Amino acid sequence: MQRRLSRRRWGGAARTPRSPAARALLSIAWLACAAGCERTTPTAPPEPEPEPRRIVPTSATAVDLVTDLVEPGRIAALPAQAAEYSRIVALEGALPGTPRFEAYLAEPVLAHRPDLVVVDPWQAPDTSARLRRAGVAVFALPEVHTLEAARAALLQLGDVLGAAARAEELAAELDRRVERLAERAVARSPLRALCYSNFGASGWSAGSETTVHEILRLAGLRNAVAEAGRVGHVGLSFEALLVHDPDVIVVSRPLAMPAGAAGDRGGASEAVLLAEPSLAGLRAVRERRIVSLPAWLYATGSHEMVRAAEVLAGEVDALQRRLDAAPAGGMR
Amino acid sequence: MRRRLPPAALALALAIGLAAVLPLSMCVGASWQPPGTVLQGALAVAGIGEPLPGVSQVIVELRLWRALTAALVGASLALAGGLTQGLFRNGLASPSLIGVTGGASLGAALAVLAVGGYAPRLVMEPGAGAAALLMPVFGFFGALGATALVALLASPGGRLSVPTLLLVGIAVNMCIAGIFAGIQSLTLANWEASRAILAWTFGTLEDRSGYHAATVAVGLALSLAVVPFVARELDLFRAGEEDARSLGVGTGAVKALALVAAALSASAAVAVAGQIAFVGLVVPHLVRLGSTSRHFALLPLCALGGALFLLGADLAQRALLGEGVLQPGVMMSIVGGPFFLVLLLRSRKEVGAW
Amino acid sequence: MVSLLAARAVVFDYPGPLRALDGVDLELAACELVAVIGPNGSGKSTLLRCLSGLAEPGAGRVELHGRPIQGFRDRERARLLAMVPQFLPALPDVSVANFVLGGRYAHLSRWRGASARDRRFVALALEAADAAELAERLMSELSGGQRQRVLVARALAQEAEVLLVDEPTSSLDPEHQIRVFELIARTAAAERGAVVVTHELNLASQFATRIVLLDGGRVAARGTPREVLRREVLEPVYGERLHFGSVGTGEQERPIVVPWRG
Q1: Could you give the 3-state DSSP secondary structure of residue A192?
Q2: How many CB pairs under 8 A join B and C?
């Protein structure tokens, strides 16, 4: 009896406990530790090949960059949803021969046997980790809010894809287009604009440090919301809209709606602006100073922001012409 | 615990509080509008006196509808909470149990799908401004639909059974959450749409207009009209449903009425303002602590208290943290969560009996 | 004589199926106190619930004043028939006076609150049930026995003709046991009727006009206390460990039955 007691007091700690419940708890704890350790054990990530031939981009931005840098034959698969918000929407054919995968998860991506996966910085880090463990090189794009960052991302990815020459070419082209935009912008008096999004619940806009802000800037417009000191994506109430009193409001046009559909070019956001009684006196609403961008351009995070700025500049010029041609007193 | 205040005294206090907070809430905003301006603008809406010059009138009107909507939403949610707690005979019940919040979320998500271009034909109405109306309308019918489904499934053999109501409510809420998640995954790539759906779940009192306020007012009025028909009966329910029946209470009719009233006011509120949790849970308890448990006084006091509660919390949050920092749903969760915990700890005895 | 309350060939099944009542007849006439006795599980409480209209029999019918009880509207029925349950599933957070006032529900108009007359009824009912001093206490503060008296008071406040009482003495001391039965008997005697389910064979012996013995969902015996509380009748139902005797003489003589190990 004495012996058993002393064993329990001094040696019991190192033994597995007798009760099944405690044992189950310990097993679960051990499994959890093992799983956690697996995650944090550092292993060298696989190096990308000099010229990958089975590239898989996993976000709209990645699709933009990859499809502009390499020929379709080198792309193994495209992300189904994200691809609709990328530049291949504007391309003829939109790469119908390339298979699609639904979600950024290890298994569907691995099924296409990629040798390089290009991801956005915020995308599922554990999927990326799993792909790396499976021996696939994963390249994470840098954060892109400005044109410089987009240009740098283009050049960086060009190196990784073995398409450095093409990347240089594209970068030079971008520079030329930006210059032309700047020239056109000078000819126009600087208009105060803001972007607006409202699906029926609350209004949203974008301040500085967003790609939309950059698009406005490239198109030669002033971002009224950024000038008021707001940063990032912010809520915009009707009251704030009235106070800002912009010259132009930029909205996005949903993908499913063809451009120029009668009476509803700007989709829901424009409909809300036009229907809201308290905004009836707003100059931008009264004079229909609302321009729309296709959704994929409005939301782009890649070098296609230059194209967005070009489209926007075109729309603003068309708006300006319409307003100039209108009889005094504004147009209905 | 002894009752603190007689109901009439509490009602007076709440009314006075509301009369003070309502105009104050209109003064606070992106820019401070002095009370005189606010009053003039508000009267002008009713057709009395001169409107303010230029955009100031519009701004005051926007703030008026916002404040009214907040007060009415708070009142509706608290009233629905009082009715639900009386129906379930349980202080931990809230309107979301009967499927209102889940159904409204689903309706709102479907509305976003429609205006987000997933159903182009719906949005092709020229100039109809469909989007602004679509969300509250879809939300309202979604909420009512979910509650109707729950009530139907909880009435085996035509009689509403309250314990079954609880279980069916939980099950239906889970199903709705699954469909809601499915819709969210559908719109993942369209970040405007997915943000719109997500933002709805935080609640919004911003940009509410006259017809929003009117919708909630109608729901509230209908529910208040039901109160005299169920108040005494809900009191008698507390000793048990069969006991109430033996005293002569028509329990089937009372349950149906209470359920319909709670569903109406909660649906209208959630459809207009999104998910605002805890008002329906917390305010009836505060009223019981402060005054009375008798439903004839409790229910109207809940409405008054709920109005002051939401309006006051919204005002405090805007004044202290500035505009647009916290959505009302988030603010209520931050305040309500700990309160709910305290409530659970206090009623540990009853919880042990589950 | 038209019976106040009658059960005719009542059959009741619980889901299972479990047959709780198998063709039970019972009649209650005015000024009667019928005691329903029987071993545990014999269907006494179920019979009471069927008699009160809260449970609908699978077959057979229950008649109140000659009309089927399911045909009555709840309020109408509550004015004629009051139930004293054995215990409440939940205790409301009210004072005793307000609780007993709840018994006036069937008499109150929706729009006017309780009148002075209602409150007088409540006071009288509390006094009759020996619970007048409890009027201002909270229901949650009462002991088991006090609660039972308050339940009886509420049934009295209902001003009903028929009292259905389920085990009114389980938590009471002997003095109060007698008082409650006296109260019920007095009430029944005043042109009303009462059906009391009880385990207290000796109280039934003293106060019941008739006794109905249930066993396994059927009526095993019915009659006056002297006819039913006899060895030949009770032993087949309750078993042999009973001791029989009597108290009182002549007209006042009543049989007593005591569980006795022997």
Answers
A1: strand
A2: 64
The per-residue pLDDT for range A196-242, each reduced to its tens digit, is 998 777 889 999 999 999 999 999 999 999 999 999 998 898 999 99
Homologous superfamily of domain range B28-46+54-352:
ABC transporter involved in vitamin B12 uptake, BtuC (1.10.3470.10)
Query: Under an 8 A CB cutoff, do B62 and A237 touch?
Result: yes
Res. A332 pLDDT band, cuts 50 70 90: very low
Q: Note the pLDDT of residue B120.
A: 47
pLDDT score, position B57: 87
The full DSSP string for A223-279 is: EHHHHTT-BSEEE--HHHHHHH--SEEEEEE-TTSPTT-TT-TTHHHHHHHHH-GGG
Does chain A reach chain B with at least 3 CB pairs under 8 Å? Answer: yes
With contacts defined as CB-CB under 8 Å, which chain B residues touch C137? none
On whether any CB of chain C is under 8 Å from the CB of B54, the answer is no
Share of chain B above pLDDT 90, in %: 40
Question: Do the Cβ atoms of A105 and A83 come closer than 8 Å?
Answer: no
- Which residue of B32, B68, B135, B207 is the best one to mutate when testing the A interface, meaning the one whose CB has the most A CBs within 10 A? B207
Quick: pLDDT tens for A30-77.
776 666 555 555 556 677 677 888 899 998 899 999 999 988 888 899
C166's CB contacts (< 8 A; 6+ apart) are C45, C48, C83, C84, C85, C86, C197
H or E segment to which residue B259 belongs: helix B251-273
- Within an 8 Å CB–CB cutoff, is residue A127 touching chain B? no
Contact B118 A262 (CB under 8 A): no
Distance from CA of B313 to the nearest CA of A (A): 19
Q: Min CA distance, B330 vs chain A (Å)? A: 15
Residues in contact with A231: Cβ distance below 8 Å, sequence separation at least 6, in sequence order: A207, A208, A209
State which residue of chain B sits closest to A281, comparing Cα positions: B55
Chain B stretch 217-276, residues whose beta carbon is closer than 8 A to a beta carbon of chain C: 228-229, 232, 235-236, 238-240, 242-243, 245-251
| Whole-angstrom distance, CA of residue A231 vs CA of residue A217 | 15
Q: What is the number of other CB atoms lying within 10 angstroms of the CB of residue A209?
A: 14
Residue type at C164 in one-letter notation: L
CA distance C241 to B112: 77
B323 has a chain A CB within 8 A of its CB: yes
CA distance B338 to B345: 11
- Alpha-carbon gap, residue A99 to A37, rounded angstroms: 36
CA pseudo-torsion sign A257, A262, A266, A271:
negative
The residues of chain B scoring below 70 in pLDDT are 1-3, 116-131, 323-325, 347-354
Cα separation values, C213 from B194, B282, B303, C40, C184, Å: 71, 52, 54, 12, 20
Within an 8 Å CB–CB cutoff, is residue A210 touching chain B? Answer: no
Q: To the nearest 10°, report the CA torsion of C245, C250, C251, C253.
A: -10
d(CA C49, nearest CA chain B) in Å: 10
CB contact under 8 A, B190 and A295: yes
Preferred mutation among A61, A102, A199 to probe B, highest tally of B CBs within 10 A: A199
Of the candidates B228, B249, B293, which has its C-beta nearest C105's C-beta? B249
Give CA–CA dist A304/A86, Å, rounded: 9
Quick: pLDDT tens for B219-232: 999 999 999 999 99
Tell whether B190 is within 8 A of chain A (Cβ): yes
Amino acid identity, position C248: G
Domain boundaries of chain B, sorted by first residue = 28-46+54-352
One DSSP character per residue, C123-173 reads HHHHHHTT-GGGTTSBGGG--HHHHHHHHHHHHHHTT-SEEEEE-TTTT--
